[in-house]
Structures are given as structure tokens and as C-alpha cells.
Write a structure and sequence with these properties.
The structure is a single chain. This protein is an alpha+beta fold. The protein folds into three domains: about 80 residues, Ubiquitin-like (UB roll) (Roll), CATH 3.10.20; about 40 residues, no CATH class; about 60 residues, Alpha-Beta Plaits, CATH 3.30.70. The chain has a five-stranded mixed β-sheet with strand order 2-1-5-3-4, sandwiched between helices. Helix 2 runs antiparallel to helix 3. The radius of gyration is 18 Å and the shape is globular. The model has no long low-confidence stretch (mean pLDDT about 90). It binds iron/sulfur cluster (2 copies) and FE2/S2 (inorganic) cluster. The site of one iron/sulfur cluster has 14 residues, from helix 4 and helix 6.
Length: about 190
């Protein structure tokens, strides 16, 4: 076992675990969007940031990616972390105010969507990639991918058409943190 502290509390986890895994094991809440235990973490959303002191310096890291080590000190609710979390959520709800799930998460941290209406109001995909990875790693299909670049980047299938490889397992719908996969399937059906 590896011994460390989270919020000045002594905790332990197995070698190879991430900070997020240890925190959850001990009932310490860290918000996440792009993480699911069934797929490899990607570090896409940065909402799970925590502050760590590894004996050399204090810095912020993504807890879903950072492996624990003996003597590590972790803080999940420091002022710095709360500010970063609020800042990320503010950006997400401003950009995707149509997602009820994001709204609820943002409200939990005291963040309100601004009155500014984003050009992507209807689009609630935060491009976290969880659906793409789950289709590949859990369903073993891999018919979802990212298409386009920059502001036009989106989750897609080959030729934007319903994929003949899709087995309709619903894994992507289940893991999507914003409800965007439902929009996606409606859109793909609409062009079929
Ligand atoms: S429903 Fe289709 S697209 Fe979604 S995870 Fe399953 S196989 Fe992939
Ligand atoms: S559709 Fe959902 S799971 Fe897929 S990238 Fe967008 S927000 Fe993430
Ligand atoms: S949950 Fe860790 S970066 Fe998204």
C-alpha cells in the first residue's frame, strides 16, 4: 500500500492508483466530467484538478491521471483549486448553457451562466471524448471519432451517417456527462 495525505487526512491506496481513485475509495469528492472507471483517463476536462506537494514543489495536477506516491500531500478544496474549478465551469456553462447537467454541476459551485447567449447554445458537447473512448474500449466497436478542427471540432461517424458497425449498446449515451450523445444520435438520424 502507498500512504499519502488528502486534505491533511492520512489515506492509502494501491500502487498504480491515481489520486482520484484513492479519493473516491475514501469518500472524498472530486468533480469529474471526462472520466469513467471503465475507460482510460484522458485528462480532457481538467475539472478534477487538485493541488499536490510532492516534496519538491506545490502544483496543480489532474487527479484522474496523477499516480499516487508515498508521502504525497494532496488538497482537493484549496482556494486555488476552487477558483480553477469555478473558472472551468463558468467557461463550460457559458459555452453550453443548454446542458441541464452542466447547469446543476455549476450551481453546486456557485457558478451561474452569463446572460450572453453562445453561438453554440444548442450544442451541449464539451468534447470530452468519453463517448469515443467508451465505444472503442468498452463496446469494442470504435465507430465514433472526432471530426474537423478548432471551433468546428465535433464527435462524428464516418461520413456523418449512422454507422453500420454500431451495435446500439448505448454505452456512449450512458457515459456522456452532458446529454450531448442524445443530440448526436438525433442529428445522425436526421441526415440518414
Ligand atoms: S451505441 Fe453504437 S456508437 Fe454508442 S458505444 Fe455502442 S456501438 Fe458505439
Ligand atoms: S458527446 Fe458527450 S461524451 Fe462525447 S465528447 Fe461530447 S460531451 Fe463528451
Ligand atoms: S476528469 Fe480528470 S481531466 Fe476530466
Amino acid at each position: 500500500m502507498v500512504h499519502l495525505t488528502i486534505n491533511d487526512r492520512e489515506v492509502s491506496g494501491q500502487d498504480g492508483w491515481t489520486i482520484l481513485e484513492v479519493a473516491r475509495e475514501h469518500g472524498i469528492d472530486i468533480p469529474t466530467l471526462c472520466q469513467h472507471g471503465a475507460v482510460e483517463p484522458s485528462g480532457a476536462c481538467r475539472l478534477c484538478m487538485v493541488e499536490v506537494d510532492d516534496g519538491r514543489r506545490r502544483r496543480m495536477v489532474a487527479s484522474c491521471l496523477y499516480p499516487i506516491r508515498a508521502g504525497l500531500k494532496v488538497w482537493t478544496e484549496s482556494d486555488r483549486i476552487q477558483n480553477v474549478r469555478r473558472w472551468i465551469l463558468q467557461m463550460l456553462v457559458d459555452e453550453h448553457p443548454g446542458s441541464e447537467r452542466l447547469q446543476v454541476l455549476a450551481q453546486t459551485y456557485g457558478v451561474k451562466a452569463s446572460r450572453f447567449k453562445s453561438s453554440r447554445y444548442e450544442d451541449v458537447c464539451i468534447l470530452c471524448g468519453l463517448c469515443v473512448r467508451a465505444c472503442e474500449e468498452v463496446a469494442g466497436v470504435g465507430c465514433l471519432s472526432f471530426g474537423n478542427r478548432g471551433v468546428h471540432k465535433e464527435v462524428t461517424t464516418s461520413y456523418h451517417l449512422p454507422s453500420p458497425e454500431c451495435i446500439g449498446c448505448g454505452t456512449c449515451l450512458y457515459v456522456c456527462p452532458t446529454g450531448a450523445m442524445e443530440q448526436f444520435f438525433n442529428r445522425v438520424r436526421a441526415v440518414a
